[in-house]
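This section describes the prediction task in plain terms. A model, or a person checking by hand, is given the sequence of a single protein chain and must write out its three-dimensional structure as a string of tokens. No templates, partner chains or ligands are provided. The sample shown here is typical of the held-out split.
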Amino acid sequence: MELRTHVRILKQAQWFVILCILAAGIAAFLFAIYRPVSYEAVVSFDVVFVNRPETLDYQYGAYYDLKAAEIYTQHLMSWLMTPAIVTEIYEEAGVQYEIDSISRFTNRFKGNQYSAQNFVVEFRDYSRETAQKLATAVATVIERRSDVTGSINDDPVFQVQALEPVVAEAELNTWFVTVIGLVAGALLSIVLVYLREYLRE
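The expected answer:
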């Protein structure tokens, strides 16, 4: 198909394309304005050494320490994917929950490791009060469970310290969403125009 053919097809359907772009842009703009307010909660954790294990390779001691902390931090974050521990968090917070899907239930809380000895837990909720309760419960449950793990010969190696949870309204850039809507409307309208042309032929 030649370039002039493409131009002819789009020119014939220019008003349809324009209307689709405007409709998608307005819909995206209204969604961004009237969407339900959600809140983002973040709980930060520090993994601190309390008893340094003895090692014969003293020159590699610092490396071993950081590697052990990194692996232990990953172990802590894996708890967030465990249904029993997620259930414990809800019960600690006194928040009702339903398990419609195991995968969705265990993806409620997201863990991100920023360094060998620091990680955060993030999640969203439509209620500030619920978000605050769950954030506090996350800190309590992980700290409590970490007290009985990460020890050698009953001597704890790590101490997990939760920082004060932060809950803030999740921001959504209205103009960015509107632009995305306009682009999506343009792409959809062009696809529909060519689909109609294909069916006509």
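For orientation: The first strand starts at residue 39 and ends at 49.
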